[in-house]
Design goal:
Order of helices and strands: EEEEEEEEEEE
Largest sheet: 7 strands, mixed
Number of strands: 11
Distance between the termini: 40 Å
Shape: globular
Structural class: mainly beta
Oligomer: single chain
Mean pLDDT: 95
Number of helices: 0
Radius of gyration: 14 Å
């Protein structure tokens, strides 16, 4: 009964910003590492970003190099929601973006992960 529902995608011009949201239900949100993957036409699905809440109550984040400095992942545990703020968007960011949840940071995106349905992001002039 785990459900991840993405929203916030759309068509934007290069340099614009979008904020994606992922609402989670059916899981103990704080026990899961949350993240985002994306898949462009004709390409394999790739890791974008992840966020976990450590034992010290500090959020730890990880990003793929192409989005560092432009994208920011965050989570609101009270709302069971994870976000992806995307700034300075480029045409190469065009893809379907998927929300993902896993109990393990090292295995996120693997066969044990839970996935959302995806939301389309198109960056075009």
């Amino acid at each position: 009964q785990v459900q991840l529902v993405e929203s916030g995608g759309g068509l934007v011009q290069p340099g614009d910003s979008l904020r994606l949201s992922c609402a989670a239900s059916g899981l103990t949100f704080t026990s899961y590492v949350m993240g985002w993957f994306r898949q462009a036409p004709g390409k394999e699905r790739e890791f974008v970003a992840s966020i976990r809440w450590g034992d010290d109550s500090i959020y730890y984040t990880r990003y793929t190099q192409p989005v560092k400095g432009r994208f920011t992942i965050s989570r609101d545990n009270a709302k069971n929601t994870v976000y992806l703020q995307m700034n300075s968007l480029k045409p190469e960011d065009t893809a379907v973006y998927y929300c993902v949840a896993d109990r393990s940071a090292t295995a996120i995106g693997g066969p044990a992960s839970f996935w959302g349905q995806g939301t389309q992001v198109t960056v075009s002039s």
